[in-house]
Design brief:
Helices cover about 35% and strands about 25% of the residues. The chain is α/β, with parallel strands linked by helices. Helix 1 links the parallel strand 1 and strand 2. The chain has eleven helices and ten strands.
């Protein structure tokens, strides 16, 4: 964590959906030490209307321009647009906060570029818990990490893995396992659905060794994640049930709150957790 200063950190947000918009609202309401500097969105007209209705006075700019306007650039976009926001942020030495952790796995060269320059990549906890424990265990030896994700079918809608295999979740009457494999393959097949698995892999033993199972479960109303870790220092399991966002069922309501908590942890006189 950077030392506490009186400097105001300017923040830019790419994407004004279920994650970006609540974060923009919180910043606009006032967060000590932070200011909302700019936003970018695919549908400019809709974004302008939402910002005006919420009384948020922030300039709407092209995606590549965010890094020119802010100290911190937050990515809340479809995975396909990841590099368009990440590259300028890293090139200009910004703090880059990606929510598409699965896309980061596909563009891992950006981590090396950040190391070589002055940029920082800070991945929020998102809808996951226990990343501190996983990071601590990774300082020793982790033998295995497995994650089982269960979502209502609408929370997996549109995943390329399902479309490519002709798997339909319509009229599903019981739980169905739709994927089992590495976190890397899961992130590729479900780029907008299981960013939590990618974050877990980055915190622990990597995307190849982290094992993932994904279930579509019509009996559930919440996105559920079970993580099991075997390490030389501890054996632990964690379960979380996230309430899906009303705007986007693929995203939990906890995720934008995690971004806000992550921002607060960037600079301050007090912090709990690693």
């Amino acid at each position: 964590m950077a030392p506490h200063t009186d400097k105001i950190l300017s923040v830019a947000i790419g994407g004004l959906g279920a994650i970006g918009f609540p974060v923009a609202q919180r910043l606009a309401q006032g967060m000590p030490g932070f200011m909302l500097a700019a936003v970018a969105a695919r549908d400019a007209a809709r974004a302008e209307a939402r910002l005006a209705a919420a009384g948020i006075a922030a300039p709407l700019v092209p995606l590549a321009e965010l890094a020119e306007r802010a100290d911190v650039v937050i990515e809340c976009l479809p995975a396909a647009r990841f590099r368009a926001i990440a590259e300028p942020a890293i090139a200009r030495g910004r703090i880059f906060m990606p929510l598409s952790a699965g896309a980061l796995l596909e563009h891992i060269d950006l981590v090396e570029r950040a190391r070589a320059g002055s940029a920082r990549i800070v991945v929020p906890t998102g809808a996951l818990l226990g990343l501190d424990a996983v990071r601590a265990a990774a300082e020793g030896q982790i033998r295995s990490i497995t994650m089982t994700t269960r979502k209502p079918p609408r929370g997996l809608a549109g995943a390329p893995y399902l479309a490519e295999r002709g798997i339909s979740l319509d009229r599903l009457t019981g739980p169905l396992k739709v994927f089992e494999g590495s976190a890397r393959d899961g992130a590729r097949g479900f780029p907008d659905n299981v960013n939590v698995a990618a974050a877990l892999a980055l915190a622990g033993i990597g995307p190849e060794r982290t094992q993932l199972a994904i279930w579509a479960d019509p009996t559930l109303e919440r996105n559920t994640h079970l993580i099991e870790v075997e390490a030389d220092s501890a054996r632990f399991s964690m379960t979380i049930q996230n309430i899906p966002s009303a705007e986007n069922p693929r995203t939990g309501r906890l995720t934008p709150l995690s971004v806000i908590a992550c921002l607060r942890g960037l600079d301050g006189p007090f912090r709990v957790g690693s």
